[in-house]
Amino acid sequence: MSRFDVAIVGGGPAGLAAALVLGRMRRRVLLLDADDPAHAPSEGVHGLFGHDGTPPLELRRTAREQLRPYESVTVRMIAADEARKASSGFRVLADGEEDSAGVLLLSTGVRYELPPIEGAAEVWARGVFQCPYCHGWEVRDRPLAAYGADAAGLALLLTSLSDDVVMLTNGDSNLGSDDVSELEAAGIVIRDDPVARLESEDGRLARIRFADGSSDDRAGLFYAPRFTPSPLPAQLGCERDDDGMMVIDEDGRTSVPGVFGAGDATVGKAAVVLAAAAGSRAAYAINAGLAHGTLPGGGSRTSSAIPVISNRVINLAPDNGAVQTGEGR
Questions:
Q1: Which parts of the chain have pLDDT scores under 50?
Q2: Residues ≥6 apart with Cβ < 8 Å to 145
Q3: Within 10 A of 326 (CB to CB), how many other CB atoms are there?
Q4: I need a surface site. Which of 8, 72, 188, 302 has the fewest CB within 10 A?
Q5: pLDDT given for residue 268 in this prediction
Q6: Contact yes or no for 154/146 (Cβ under 8 A)
Q7: At what angle do helices 56-65 and 13-24 cross, to 10 degrees?
Q8: How far is Cα 20 from Cα 202, in angstroms, rounded to an integer?
């Protein structure tokens, strides 16, 4: 069993940003990542200055490479199976191996649940989107749809991207008279017909087919997804909201002392740039806590951890760039 100052579960924007901050402060960090991000199908990350349009997996690879100079950071590309409290912090089990850490940062992200429409999976991130800030520009000036009984606010956001916006209630409208008036004033068409399926051409959304057989050509369908969160916050007893998202303070502290949260798995707006900022802010708070002794650390500053950039050990010698690989840790 290895001992770390901080164990980070989830190697997305939040976890990678936190690992970078803590590595630069010479904290012993274990970063665990299942390497199966929810946004992998996306053609590019948007809204992140300096990286606008970068494919998500490429962005992650670049970030992991930039952790190489920090010899106190260990990256293991495997999923965390369990996390639990221990006498001096926490223990994390991954792939049959257990490690301990004084502090735990959960940046696990979430799984998006696709809308229950035939054909949605085939055009996920190619016409079916959850975020107009992340993907709206790519379908600008084309016919767009907001899907869902409660999608009035989402439909209004789309009006800066297109003059042709329809709200699809799927036959289950919860709209009040004020909502209807606001939507109509914005030029948004409200359609209550049940949606039967989505049809594609060349792998992208082409049209929406309704139960009555009619169709409507649309380049983008935006919806407010439900999420499937990681089970780890519940295992640890962290307070969560009704959707299962971790409740945190402004620095990422959860209701469990020593457990921090950052990124899409927490209550609040979700975006790559916001997740990275949240991970950095949590790392600042964690490092300050370790420095002041209000959080338990891993002991000596000198690291015995071996940096890893895959599920094989990569021993990075920063002075000569030599790389040795081997199984295990």
A1: 300, 302-329
A2: 165, 166, 167, 168, 208, 216, 218, 220, 221, 222
A3: 10
A4: 302
A5: 85
A6: yes
A7: 10
A8: 40
d(CA 244, CA 247): 9
Q: Can you say whether the dihedral through the CA atoms of 114, 120, 122, 127 is positive or negative?
A: negative
Residue whose tokens read 């924007």: 13
Out of 1.20.120.1200, 3.40.50.300, 2.60.120.560, 3.50.50.60, which CATH number does the structure's domain 3-111+226-326 have?
A: 3.50.50.60
- Count Cβ atoms within 10 A of the Cβ of residue 49 and give its class: 0-12 exposed, 13-18 middle, 19 or more buried: exposed
* Domain 115-223 part of CATH 3.50.50.60: yes
* Predicted model pTM: 0.87
pLDDT tens profile 250-262: 999 999 999 999 9
Q: Looking at residue 112, what is its pLDDT?
A: 86
- Length of the chain counted residue by residue: 329
